[in-house]
Design a protein that fits this description.
Length: about 140
């Protein structure tokens, strides 16, 4: 009986710690990073980034955005600040719907990783490698 009570108390403490420690559905925790950091991550993972250009993040209600030229294709990297209530809700919607709209045209979003999404992967030759880098971007 005592062992069971101790186990339940420890289990309760662990669950409460997880809940109140800021755990979030946006894993990994990379909200402190910026899109240019993702460009560096791609390069460290062996992908050649030919160019980095700024993008206006406002059309998709993001905090920051850049365009990366990789091979013969470009991708857009967008960061949503999950500390901002509106941006967090926007990112939750993107994660649920698996798409984002530019001027009413839907574009697929294959994965939300923490605070980041990448657009323009549908026909990219390095799609799998870019998504792998995104998953490990923290």
């Amino acid at each position: 009986m005592i062992k069971k009570a101790v186990f339940l108390n420890v289990l309760t403490a662990v669950i409460l710690t997880a809940v109140f420690s800021g755990c979030t559905m946006f894993e990994p925790d990379n909200n402190y990073l910026h899109p240019v950091d993702f460009a560096r991550k791609l390069q460290s993972d062996g992908l050649k980034v030919d160019a980095v250009r700024p993008l206006d993040p406002r059309p998709v209600a993001a905090a920051e955005a850049i365009e990366l030229a990789i091979g013969n294709s470009n991708i857009g990297v967008y960061k949503y600040d999950i500390n901002n209530k509106l941006q967090r809700k926007r990112l939750e919607k993107i994660k649920r719907e698996k798409r984002i709209y530019f001027i009413g045209i839907p574009y697929p979003v294959y994965e939300v990783s923490g605070s980041f999404i990448v657009v323009g992967l549908d026909k990219h030759k390095e799609k799998k490698r870019i998504l792998e880098s995104l998953r490990n971007f923290k």
